[in-house]
Each structure stands twice: as C-alpha cells, then as structure tokens.
Design a protein that fits this description.
14 helices; five-stranded mixed β-sheet; single chain; alpha/beta
C-alpha cells in the first residue's frame, strides 16, 4: 500500500551519504533520538558519549564541540552548560554536600561569590575566602571539612595571577579537589591540566581537577552566544558531574553549539589581537598621572606578575599570553560622577558586561563592594575595567586619551 503524502513527508527515505566533508560540521538537532530496537533502549547509557539516547544528553554536534574543547584545554571529558555560571553551579552542587566547606579566592568571579554566600549557605555548605595570591593564607583557611577549592587565573576585575602550581600541590597533598575558572586563560595562555608543561597526558600530571570555561567569551567571539563548559581528566569526577548535569537538564541548543564551533578556528588569532590591544592600553595608562594603578599581569609591578611569567611565558613565546582585559584605578580625587563621565565619553568602548567579542567594552567596578577587605596590594581609588576587542590599538588609545582630557 502506498502511504499518503503526509506520511511520506514524515517517513522520508533519504539519508545523507557518508564521506561528505566541509569546513563547518553538520548540525544535528533532536529531542527524540531513534533506537534500532527495544533492546538498545535498555542497553544504552546516557553518560556514554559513544552513543545517543535523548536530546538533552547530546547529539553528534555537541559531542564534537566537547571533544574539540578537550583538545584545546587538555581534558579527557567535557560537558556543555547553558552559561559559564551554570557550569560553576553544576560543579558546586554536584560535588558539595551539607556540612562541606568550600574555599574561593576573594577576587573570584562575582556571581560565583554570590552563589556561595546565598544558595550554598542555604544548602548547608559553608564558603570561606582566601587571598588569591597568598598560598599560605589558602593553607591556613583549609579545614577538615574543606572539599573544594576554587582557583582563578587571573582573578576577576583586579587580575591578580596566583601561583597555580603551588596551590594545586597544596590541595592535592590534602586530598582536596580543585576547580579552575579558566575563562581568562581560555586554554591558550597556559595548560590547566599540565601546569609543569611536561606533556604528560595522564590524570596524574600536575594540574587542576576540573576547569569551567565561559564559552560565551573567546570561543564564541561574537558576543551573541551564552554557553559554558566543565572539563576533567578524571573518569570518576566525570561520572559525578555528568550525572548531576543530566538530572538538572543542563542542555544547550545545537544552533548555539554550531556558533561556537564556527568561532573556534579563529579563536587564537582573536585572543592574540585582544592581548596586544590590552597591553598597548596598559602601557599607555601606566604613564597617566590620573591613574594610581594599572592592573595587567604583564606589567612588572602587577600583583602576581612573577606567577604569570612562570605559567604563561614559554621559550617559544617569551612574551607570554594574556586575555584582553586591563583594569585601571582612577585617583580618588576624582568623584564617581567624573569617572562615570570618563566612561560615557568613550566612543569605541561600548558600555557592557562580558568580553571576548569584536567590540571593546568598559564598565566600572567597586572594589570595596566585591572584596572582604581592601587588599594591601591595591591602591585606593575607583576602578574601571576595559575589555579589548579587535579594533586598532591606536584608535582605542586615542579614544581613552580624549575621554581622559575631559576627565581633567
């Protein structure tokens, strides 16, 4: 019996041929995924990236991105999340239980700190904060209940660079898990799972236990996609994280995955351009009397400069690598209204959060509101964060100069 036209439109016989190749991979979108037989519905494991069960667990498109991210950062297992913050929340909630203690650097990404102080405490998980570049302070804050230490390199806003090697050694000696927010490094500035650069691909190499990465930033590159990732080399950690990830339905859209895949090939070029622009701005800003401190890890007097050189400078790239972010602390003799006017006067820097896109961005930030105490290594003043895009460095510096002229 010949089926009706409407039936033929649904049960179409065409299947794409094997061996098709193109620069961009195919996009596989699905909620329902077909099984060859009923036995397969019972035998397939949703955590096994070698097969498919349901759209929330992934398709060939999301599995491809996960594997490319592993190649970028040096992990073995990766999971995608709807945002970088969702990835952070997944790590916290998958691994911590009531009564556990978690340590975060005092310069940690603001939403991670807010999550810890509000929701984690509500769930009976106790957070505490350590000085980001002081390994002895981290050691002093560890308790028998400490189960997880968050690391950031460089830290949010004020960009202190810690000695990750010493911090990871300390935590490993005490059997404490480490999670690194690697959005700034992006898998390009240093190797988070091989901090000693030995080329050792084993789980025993000196490295963090997990990374999270806001793919919203450099992997996307367009300022138009929200996504995060979690990565590990540990099979046991992957099982814990992926099980929680599955239970909470932390899935992503395949069109967004397609956009990230399209951005990856140019990611290193864009990272280097943003880095070059940020250094040009940092060097210019360091000469301006209105700024009492310029924060960028490449500057010799920057907090954590020696650690940045240790982790991010190699014989092949002695100049090192750094994300396109520079923060400036404006002299306290200027009012907040004057600093706001300085930012409002900028033409090429758009006012907005996030970074890693084609346009340069500016926001103000209150150090007093985000830190437990005012760090001794930071000058008193009002902070402005500049995130560089892909414009010409000379144009960005000229824009800052004209706005600075109005400030004075």
């Amino acid at each position: 019996m010949k089926p009706d036209r409407s039936t033929r439109l649904i049960h179409h016989p065409y299947q794409p041929p094997d061996g098709f190749g193109a620069p961009q991979p195919a996009v596989h979108k699905a909620s329902t995924i077909f099984f060859p037989n009923i036995a397969a519905t019972r035998s397939r494991d949703a955590l096994d990236r070698g097969n498919y069960t349901y759209g929330t667990h992934g398709t060939p498109t999301s599995y491809l991105l996960e594997q490319r991210l592993c190649a970028l950062e040096g992990g073995k297992h990766a999971m995608l999340a709807p945002s970088g913050l969702a990835a952070i929340a997944c790590v916290n909630l998958a691994l911590l239980n009531p009564g556990d203690h978690v340590l975060l650097p005092d310069n940690v990404y603001g939403p991670n700190k807010a999550l810890a102080l509000a929701d984690l405490q509500r769930f009976g998980i106790q957070p505490a904060f350590y000085e980001a570049t002081d390994t002895s302070d981290l050691a002093a804050k560890i308790t028998p209940a400490t189960k997880l230490v968050w690391l950031e390199a460089a830290g949010s806003g004020t960009l202190e660079f810690p000695d990750l090697i010493e911090q990871v050694k300390l935590c490993r000696s005490k059997g404490i898990l480490t999670a690194l927010d690697n959005t700034w490094g992006a898998g390009l500035a240093f190797a988070p799972f091989d901090l000693l650069r030995t080329g050792d691909g084993s789980a025993e190499a000196l490295g963090v236990d997990m990374t999270v990465h806001a793919l919203t930033k450099y992997p996307s590159g367009g300022g138009h996609v929200l996504m995060g990732s979690i990565m590990t080399r540990s099979d046991a950690l992957f099982e814990k994280l992926a099980t929680f990830h599955m239970h909470f339905g932390l899935c992503v859209g395949m069109n967004d995955v397609e956009a990230i895949l399209a951005g990856l090939p140019s990611m290193e070029l864009r990272y280097r351009k943003a880095d070059k622009n940020a250094r040009a701005i940092a060097q210019w800003a360091a000469q301006q009397a209105q700024f009492v401190q310029v924060l960028h890890p490449s500057l010799p007097d920057a907090p954590g400069h020696a650690a940045w050189k240790k982790h991010c400078c190699t014989p092949e790239r002695p100049e090192g690598a750094a994300a396109g972010i520079v923060s400036i602390i404006v002299d306290d003799r200027f009012s907040q209204a004057q600093v706001d006017a300085f930012c409002d006067s900028l033409q090429w820097f758009k006012i907005g959060y996030s970074w890693g896109g084609p346009m340069s961005l500016v926001v103000t930030s209150s150090i007093a509101a985000t830190r437990s105490t005012w760090p001794a290594h930071l000058q008193r003043g009002k902070m402005v964060r500049l995130c560089t895009g892909l414009e010409e460095a000379a144009d960005l510096v000229a824009d800052l100069q004209q706005a600075l002229n109005k400030l004075t």
